[in-house]
Fold this protein.
Amino acid sequence: MHFSLIMFFRIKISPSGKVLQLLEAFRNDQGQPRNRVVTSLGNADIPSSAKDLVAKAVENRLYGRQEFFNWQYDEPVQCWIDTIVRKVDLEGRWKPLGEATDDRAVINGVFIEEIAHENSTLLGPILLARHAWNQLKMDSCLESMGLNHTQRLAVAANVINRLVDPVSENALQGWLGRTAMPELYGHGILKLKRDQFYRGTDSLLKKRREIEAHVRSCHRSLFSLHRTLFLYDLTNSYYEGSAKRNPKAKRGHSKHKRNDCPQIVLGMVFDSEGFELGHEIFDGNRKDSSTLLEIIERLREFVKDEAAICERGEKPLVILDGGIATRENINLLRNNGISYLVNETRRGRKKWRKEFLLDQEFEAIPDRVNKRPVKVRLIEQMREDNETDLILLCKSEGRLEKEKAIRSAVEEKYLDRLEHLKKRITSGRLKEPQKIERALGRIQERHSRVNRFYEIQFERESLTLSWKRDEEKYGEDDELLGCYALRTDRKEYTQDQIWNIYMTLTRAEEGFRSVKMHLGLRPFRHHTEDRTDAHIFISVLAYHLLRTLLYPLETSGDTRSWETIKRILSTHCYTTIHVPTKGEGTYRIRKAGKPDETQKGIYNALGINWKNLPGKVEKNQRKS
């Protein structure tokens, strides 16, 4: 009968260098002492002071023993224990030795009170991500692009992580060990190093255009998409650090109020269902309106992909927001045979003041149950080329309240800073007129939205500062809050169609929100241009997986967010179950849990087979 004595670490000298091994001392059937290798850990740097503690804890975990004392291990020790147990489970070579039994309670040969489970790892969201990855045929796509198996594995790990739980490349290896990725992709994925993740994304970036074309084609086939309109919008994302080695990283107007950091500008094209078609990266100080020229060529590429447009000779329609829809850009679209639907700038609505005030001419958009009403009015305007555009004047109660709240918040900050400046002057802390005027200029510049409503007087001789609001200007601005104007050259559209088509631009906004908030786009911590571009592309690919999962759910009426779905599926895990038996030692069963009904509903809606996931059973061969 074999009896385990103790586990311990030993360094073995091999031709390739030193190897740390975990050994197990035991006595064979003749009572002779022997050692066997539990696992080899390469050049793992476990502190000498922690080795005995780690070895004993691993021994207890593998044999399912209760520890005599409830030790509180330090975090590094905990990490080593979990890593080694996980490695032993995945390798599947170690088998428990037989142990003598006692008078413990037995049911059908099983010590029922000692059944335990450990090493539970995240499965649910990983299973969804792998399903989307396979639906988009990403592995065969990357193989056709020349990426070898290791590179493809590194890219899959990177993209799936970005969708499920974004971490840096430095932390990616540790994250993989806490998930079901090894069960689904093979335990070789745990051998990937940080440099391999970087090299994988470098190889990916070189084929960006081809990969985007492949994904567009897959989405079109999977969901029978007919793309006739395109949404173009921009966002920016900032760096942590100076990013001096990236020529695109420059200071500019930050939509995240991080003007203290360098940034880049990201332009993305979406279809009406929120699928991303392509993206471009611009310098951080690039104006939104100046980027459209470089996107025109990409739009031509997307149009060629769409047989429905080409066969009917239909002009594509591009939807733009106010910051991009300058007169020059509208002419650029028109000259390239592209129709447009754009939002006039907020300042531009003043020219329609008289029309907006004729409230009786407006009609409500129908079918807005339990939503704030929106009223519209359709008029025509002659262009410089003697053609006409349709102008849809819109009045939204929801936008009215939002703009009032924003203006009120900005005005409050503006007045607070004026008061603060005034106190500095009256207390004598600020005495030089030139410094006072510079401080005042900064306040006015930063709050230009409300500064136009105020008359400010500064007397240099007496050093007195005062201000007064122009109520007439303020009232005129009140009249136009919640109002906006849409412009299009598509004269066949009704007013309801124009408004509903424009509202698809919210798909682009949702896409940006997902990429930035949930898929790890910001902030950037990379120093070079290639690393930043690769980081962005990984987030974009994660967004493709996200839309591949959410679109079929949305079409079936399930509008839950990705965060909600992840939370529901987070309890569906792989786990190792210890089943101690009388006469056959301890069984170690590694398998996926059974999903609950809510989890099953998500899997079934996406066509995911959760019943045949890989698992394994290990047992002691001794019989007594």
Remarks:
- The longest helix spans residues 397-426.
- The chain has a mean pLDDT of 87.
- The CA atoms of residues 372 and 397 lie 6 Å apart.
- The longest strand covers residues 3-14.
